[in-house]
Amino acid sequence: MRTGRPAKYPSDPTGTTKRCTKCGAVRDLDGFYADAGGVLGRVSACKECCKKTARACSLKILASRAETAAVRECAGCKVVKPAAEFSPSKYAKSGLQSYCKTCRRPRRRWWQLKQAYGIDRTAYERMLAAQGGLCAICLDAPGATPKGVLFVDHCHKTGKVRGLLCESCNLGIGKLKDNPEVYKAIEERVRRELGMTREAETAAV
After folding, report:
1. How many CA atoms lie within 13 A of 72 on its CB side?
2. Strand (E) positions, the chain?
3. What share of the chain is helix, strand, coil (3-state, %, to 5)?
4. Structurally, how many domains does the chain consist of?
5. Which of 35, 56, 77 is the last residue of a domain?
6. What is the pLDDT along the chain (205 residues), one digit of tens a residue?
7. Does residue 62 belong to any structural domain of this protein?
8. Does some domain include residue 75?
9. Would the pTM of this model clear 0.70, i.e. be above it?
């Protein structure tokens, strides 16, 4: 077992700290990975530098794989597309995802719906059809909404799914905390304001 290093990398004689040979920082021994053959039983570089090196190597390997696979067939649409149309994957031999970016976005959305609300694509489309393809409150079509989709409305206490709403209605209900009294107060205020506006218009005529 080695017992020392050149003076270029001095260590704490008390054996509680060690200098990293990459960044030069002096750290506690806990900041280094164990190495039975190293000075003080630790590797020469600190954990942070080791992680940076590992990340750089991983990215280099992914980039190399992606360059090798100039084209790939998407597992979803079955279309052969350039490698740039696929997100990188450190688990795949090709270094690329099986689904192209276009197919992956909706797949991820259905997965998120399943995780968050326990409904799949079939259940979502069934609700959408039952609502005539419109927001359950304002009756706007998905294409008329800012993001072009309807969001799942659910009870924040029970988690029960109540229907599909446009982004504005969904955010509004969330901000009002599902409080019927607040809804009632807003309705009364809007009706009162509308009544005052109509009276003013009638008086002007």
Report:
1. 25
2. 17-19, 26-28, 32-34, 42-46, 71-73, 80-82, 151-154, 161-165
3. 45, 15, 40
4. 2
5. 56
6. 444 444 444 555 567 888 899 998 999 888 999 988 888 889 999 999 999 999 888 887 776 665 556 788 888 888 888 888 888 887 777 778 888 888 887 788 888 888 888 888 888 889 989 999 888 888 888 766 656 788 888 887 888 888 898 888 888 887 777 777 887 888 888 888 777 666 655 665 5
7. no
8. no
9. no
Answer for the pair 164, 136: CB distance below 8 angstroms, yes or no.
yes
**Residue 205: domain span:** 119-205
In a domain, 188, yes or no: yes
In a domain, 133, yes or no: yes
* Residue/partner pairs of 109-118 with CB below 8 Å, 24 or more apart: 113/152, 116/152, 117/152, 117/154, 117/159, 117/161, 118/161
CATH number at residue 194: 3.40.1800.10
Q: How far is CA 108 from CA 41, 102, 114, in A?
A: 46, 11, 10
